[in-house]
Amino acid sequence: SQRVFSGIQPSGVPTLGNYLGAIRNWVPMQDTHESIFCVVDQHAITMWQDPKELTRQTRDMAAALLACGLDPERCILFVQSHVHAHTRLAWIFNCVARIGWLNRMTQFKDKAGKDRENAGAGLYVYPNLMAADIHAYHATRVPVGEDQKQHLELANDIAEKFNHDYGVEFFPHIDAHIMGVAARVMSLRDGTKKMSKSDPSDQSRINLNDDADTIALKIRRAKTDPEPLPSEMQGLEGRPEARNLVGILAAITDTTPEAVLREYGGQGFGSFKGVLADALVAHLSPIASEAQRLLADPGAVDALLRRGADRARAIAEPIVAKAEELVGFLPPR
Ligand code: ATP
Ligand code: MG
Fold it and tell me: What is the dihedral of CA 294, 304, 24, 315, to 10 degrees?
C-alpha cells in the first residue's frame, strides 16, 4: 500500500484551516496506510521565529496533533530537524530544481511580499525541502490543503528530473490528496485570502486552542455581506465570505454546502453565525482540553517525538544514502 507523508509548520497554533484541510484527513489514514507525520520546524524558520517560541510551538503542535487523533502506535510522528536526511536530500534537490520553476511558486510571492530582494533565501528554496521531506520516505500519497498543490507538482518535476539525469527510476510519482469542501478555508476577515496561522491578525482565524467565548466572538465579527443566505449554491457566487462560512459549517458537521443552504437559506447571518459558533465549540473544545492535558507532561511529549524520529530515520537514512550514492558522492563508510 502507499506510504503517506505530510507535515505542518510550528509557525503558530494550528488553525481551523489546518484542521479541516489537512490534520482531520490524516487521522483515518493511520488505519489504512503506513503514515508519517512531521512537525516541520526547518520550514518554519523560513519566516522569522523567536527561538523560545519556536521550541514551545513545536511541542504544542505535536500535542495538538495527538489531541486531534494521531496515535504514535499507529503512525510515525516526529520533528523535521531531528532527522538530518531531509536537509541532505534538499541540498541535492536545490541542484536539481531550476530557478525558473521556483520563480512560478505563488506561496513565495505571497510570503515574500513587496520587498522580494530582502526575503530569506530559505523561503525561496522551501519547495525543494518540502520535496525532500516526501521523497526521503518514497512516500506516494500526500494529504494537504489546496494551497500546497503547486509545491507537490514541483516535487514531481524534481523527482522526474532526478530520475532522468541519473538514469534511474528511483523517486516515485506522488499523488496529491486534496480533500473535501474545506480544502481551502478562507480568512474570517477577507474571503479571498486563505486562513493562515501566521496571519498577523488573530481575528482572521479560529485557533484550535481558542476557548468558547473567543470562537463565538471571532465568528460574530467575521466579515459578511448584508444579504441573507441563498437557498442554492449559485447564490454564493461573488460572495466569498458567505461561501466560506457555509463551507466551514458543512465540513464541521459532515454535510455538504448544498444541505447547509437548504436548511439555512433565507436566514440572516446573525442566527447562522450562532449555529456555526456552537458547532465549532462542540467540535473543537474536546481537542483543546486533550492538548492541555498532554502538555501537563512536556517530557512525555518530547520522548514520544524522539521515538518517532528514531523510526523515521530508519526509513529515510537508507533512501537518502542511496540518492547520495547515485549522485556519486564518495561513500562515507
Ligand atoms: P503558515 O501561515 O505559517 O504557512 P499555515 O496555516 O499555512 O501556516 P502550514 O503549516 O503551512 O499552515 O500547512 C499545514 C497544512 O495545512 C498543509 O497541508 C496546508 O495545505 C494546510 N492548510 C493551511 N492553511 C489551510 C487553509 N486555509 N485551508 C485548508 N488547508 C490549509
Ligand atoms: Mg502555509
Answer: 180
ipTM of the complex: 0.99
Residue 1's pLDDT band (cuts 50, 70, 90): confident
Please tell me the CATH code under which domain 3-183+297-327 is placed.
3.40.50.620
Ligand nearest to the CA of 247: 1
Class of domain 209-292: mainly alpha
pTM score, whole prediction: 0.97
**Chain segment 119-146, per-residue pLDDT in tens:** 999 999 999 999 999 999 999 999 999 9
CA–CA dist 97, 26 (Å, integer): 28
The finding on whether 15 has its CB within 6 A of some atom of ligand 1 is yes
Atom of ligand 1 nearest to the CA of 14: 6
Q: Would you list the domain boundaries of the chain?
A: 3-183+297-327, 209-292
CB contact at 8 A, 46 and 126: yes
Q: Which of 4, 11, 18, 174 to mutate to test the pocket of ligand 1 (most atoms within 8 A of CB)?
A: 18
Per-residue exposure over 81-114, b if at least 16 CB sit within 10 Å of its own CB, e if not? bbbebbbbbbebbeebbeeebbeebebbeebbee
pLDDT of residue 278: 98
Euclidean distance between CA atoms 126 and 133, whole angstroms: 11
